């Protein structure tokens, strides 16, 4: 569900014509999740999931986020992008057990931006899952596409300072076992955000075609055409591609340790005659 799930908020118009988008985000830090067979991890969540919701606005919209901290620890939300200092998620610490704070700012700049808890130690709060994606669309929009979000993450399950598992959207090997269905000759747009901690770099390699890459998504013209990009921590971008042949194509980290430990998946490319075909579980 997370892959193509976008939250546009509760939408209304202000007297001056500005679009207001209102969101509610709740933090919790007591959930136990089976992230791999037999491996349970204490995830800290925004709105009950890791990653948190993908919230979306158009440049110039007024964004209002009602933040509720139902956890046992102090938390905040820090948004990458433009906002006043008092909305930065650094100093306005929100207390546990129902503490509240309202973030309000004008959406900008255009692009794909992470948000995350910024309470110290930040590595602990991000490492347990308190992060999500904020997309700011250009006023003129982008070309129509099949859009999806992939948050790259890692988990230090034995707390030794090294990640044991890696994934796109939290569950290792999920898209290998559940290939992502896409259509041949249709534009695919993936918003990729690297939230892996403990490792300085990550990357995204695509088989069978090349993609246009827009670093941070702030420019409407792609920076280059490639089949692999490398990300530092919290680095992100937009990739766009089409497949001209049907079949199964792998995408994965080209850091082999990451792919061997879960950061790998498949696109299943169909033509129009395959629109209602069953998706099989490829691999184990």
Structure overview:
This protein has 284 residues and is mainly β. The protein folds into 2 domains: 2-137, Immunoglobulin-like (Sandwich), CATH 2.60.40.420; 146-274, Immunoglobulin-like. The protein contains 3 helices and 20 strands. It has helices spanning 122-127, 174-177, 256-260, and strands at residues 10-13, 19-36, 39-46, 54-58, 62-69, 78-79, 99-106, 111-116, 131-137, 146-155, 165-168, 180-183, 188-194, 201-206, 211-215, 224-226, 228-232, 236-241, 247-252, 264-270. The strands form 4 sheets. A 6-stranded mixed beta sheet has the order 11-10-13-18-15-16, with no helix packed on it. Strands 1, 2, 3, 5 and 7 form a 5-stranded mixed beta sheet that branches. Strand 1 (10-13) and strand 2 (19-36) form a beta hairpin.
How would you summarize the topology of this molecule?
Blueprint: E1 10-13, E2 19-36, E3 39-46, E4 54-58, E5 62-69, E6 78-79, E7 99-106, E8 111-116, H1 122-127, E9 131-137, E10 146-155, E11 165-168, H2 174-177, E12 180-183, E13 188-194, E14 201-206, E15 211-215, E16 224-226, E17 228-232, E18 236-241, E19 247-252, H3 256-260, E20 264-270
Parallel strand pairs: 2-5, 4-9, 10-13, 12-20
Antiparallel strand pairs: 1-2, 2-3, 5-7, 6-8, 8-9, 10-11, 13-18, 14-17, 14-19, 15-16, 15-18, 19-20
């Amino acid at each position: 569900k997370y892959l193509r799930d976008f939250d546009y908020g509760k939408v209304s118009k202000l007297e001056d014509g500005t679009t207001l988008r209102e969101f509610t985000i709740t933090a919790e830090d007591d959930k136990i999740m089976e992230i791999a067979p037999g491996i349970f991890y204490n995830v800290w969540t925004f709105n009950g999931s890791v990653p948190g919701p993908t919230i979306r606005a158009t440049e110039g919209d007024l964004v209002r986020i009602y933040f509720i901290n139902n956890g046992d620890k102090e938390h905040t939300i820090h948004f990458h992008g433009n906002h006043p200092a008092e909305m930065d998620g650094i100093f306005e610490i929100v207390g546990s057990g129902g503490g509240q704070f309202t973030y309000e700012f004008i959406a900008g700049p255009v692009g794909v931006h992470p948000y995350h808890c910024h309470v110290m130690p930040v590595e602990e709060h991000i490492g347990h899952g308190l992060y999500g994606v904020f997309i700011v669309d250009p006023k003129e929009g982008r070309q129509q596409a099949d859009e999806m979000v992939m948050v790259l993450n890692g988990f230090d399950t034995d707390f030794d300072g090294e990640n044991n598992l890696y994934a796109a959207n939290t569950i290792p090997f999920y898209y290998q076992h559940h290939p992502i269905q896409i259509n041949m000759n249709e534009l695919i747009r993936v918003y990729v955000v690297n939230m892996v901690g403990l490792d300085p770099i990550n990357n995204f390699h695509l088989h069978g075609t090349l993609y246009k890459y827009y670093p941070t998504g702030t420019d409407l013209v792609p920076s280059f055409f490639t089949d692999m990009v490398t990300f530092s921590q919290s680095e992100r971008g937009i990739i766009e591609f089409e497949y001209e042949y049907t079949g199964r194509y792998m995408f994965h980290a080209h850091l082999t340790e990451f792919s061997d430990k879960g950061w790998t998946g498949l696109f299943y490319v169909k033509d129009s005659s395959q629109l209602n075909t069953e998706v099989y579980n490829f691999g184990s």
